[in-house]
Amino acid sequence: MSRPDGDRAPLLFGRPVPPRTVAWLTVVWLLLWGELSVANVLGGLLAALAVVWLLPLPARKPALRIHPARLLVFLAVFATDLVISSVRVAFWALRFGTVPPMEIVEVRLRTSSEVMAVLAVVALSALPGSLVLEARLADGELVLHVLGLTGDVQGTTRADVAKLEARIVAAFGTTADREELR
User: Fold this and answer.
1) To the nearest 10°, the Cα dihedral for 177, 154, 149, 171?
2) What is the CA radius of gyration of the chain?
3) pLDDT at 2 over 80
4) Do residues 10 and 19 lie in contact, with contact meaning Cβ atoms separated by under 8 Å?
5) N or C: which end of the chain has fewer CB within 10 A?
6) What residue intervals traverse the membrane (predicted)?
7) Mean pLDDT rounded to a whole number for the chain
8) Cβ-contact 44, 26 below 8 angstroms
9) How far out from the chain centre does Cα 22 lie?
10) HSE toward the beta carbon, residue 82, CA cutoff 13 A
């Protein structure tokens, strides 16, 4: 059993024992005991080795990577989008007697990663004035209800979703996800 990055974990009696997991479990053990001593370190190592040897985790490829600088960009732009959307919805809510423009828009996502698609759905649903009515993740298609936009609603919405998706993939995507959007 190998780790996703291709490195093999050392074997103990024929089973892989990932050093990072053992180290992390040992630190947790020490924190639980609250005292740094040779006996606690050795006990933590033995307990960690027993846990990872008796309860091995399956090898998996990470579906989410956090890129701090791009995450900050995503959060800043998303916060700005939240404010703009809130003002737009408030504007239409305060215009009594006027029905705000509404439209149903189908959008195709460019990424095939379900994790990135779910993050896009969550972000779109959090924005006031947009609601994901249907998400066909297998096809990469979303059906959105858009409130309060005028003009070319279809084109504007598709462009906004593409930009949001690109920021999400830049902030959280793996190398394969980012390559897919190029």
Assistant:
1) 0
2) 24
3) no
4) yes
5) C
6) 38-59, 71-95
7) 89
8) yes
9) 26
10) 9
